[in-house]
Specification:
This protein is of the alpha+beta class. The protein is built from 4 helices and 4 strands, in the order E-E-H-E-E-H-H-H. A two-stranded antiparallel sheet has the order 1-2. A two-stranded antiparallel sheet has the order 3-4. Helix 3 packs antiparallel against helix 4.
Amino acid sequence: MFEKAIAHETRLVNWTPATGWIKPEELARLNPKAQIPVLVDGEAAVYDSTIIFEYLDERVPKPALFPTGVAERARCRMLEDLGDKLLAPNLGVLVREVLLKPDASTRDAAAVAQTKAS
């Protein structure tokens, strides 16, 4: 939104180590997966960061977020998919075991070690 200079209202979702995400009740109505982010644009509710990215690039073409060449756009999509498929699951383990458990003695050391190795 900032990159394309689109006027918008940001609604932050509260998060604390003790409670995790405190999601607004309307989130499940906007996104059946009840995950963030969600973009509401008039009647359209668009979820998933990748889909939001593509939606914004189609809705407001300039400046383009994707590269102009077909191969470059495919590479961009593959890198994003790599992040979703390989990095995000590991990040979830590390958030759960390190960020949410500041006391190292309460962590699943095997899960952390396996995640670091992968």
